[in-house]
Amino acid sequence: MRLLFRLFSGPRARQLVGPPHPISHIRPVLYDTASRMGNDQSHPYSLMEFSEGWEDHGNLQLRMEQERLYLFNHTFWLDSNTRFLQGKEEALQRWEANGDKSPESKEVVLSEFYSQWSIQEASRQAKYTKEWNKRNRLVIKLAMGHQIRLWKESLTKALLGQ
């Protein structure tokens, strides 16, 4: 039991999530690193920050891919939502210029806009989804590899009694 506790405990990285972007509606994520040094550290800087192990390379690659995926996602939705809001505003301006101010005519104008928007964006959305899935699978693969390396390290330390 003690071995399992040591194997699955230890420093954890935290992800800090901010409020959603007003247009993309994507919440920014700040990735924190788990400290491997104890609180008795007397050096003013983290010397582990510059560790040269291959494990750190894997963690760095994971972090970079996570940030690339976030940026890809944010950029797509920022562009898509900006164009959507602009198109919706133009549709509403045409409705106001039409003269028929009834709620029913507004619903018809918006319904036509939404339908046209969905058809217009279907191909772009499909390409985005395919690319997002590809990038997300890479992030999952890297995260699994990183976690396996951490478990191996913990198991080795636990078995050696460190």
TrEMBL record:
It is a peripheral membrane protein. Keywords: Membrane, Mitochondrion, Mitochondrion inner membrane, Transit peptide. GO terms for cellular component: mitochondrial inner membrane. Coiled coil: none annotated. The keyword Nucleus does not apply. It comes from the Eukaryota. Belongs to the COA8 family. This is Uncharacterized protein. It comes from Sphaerobolus stellatus (strain SS14).
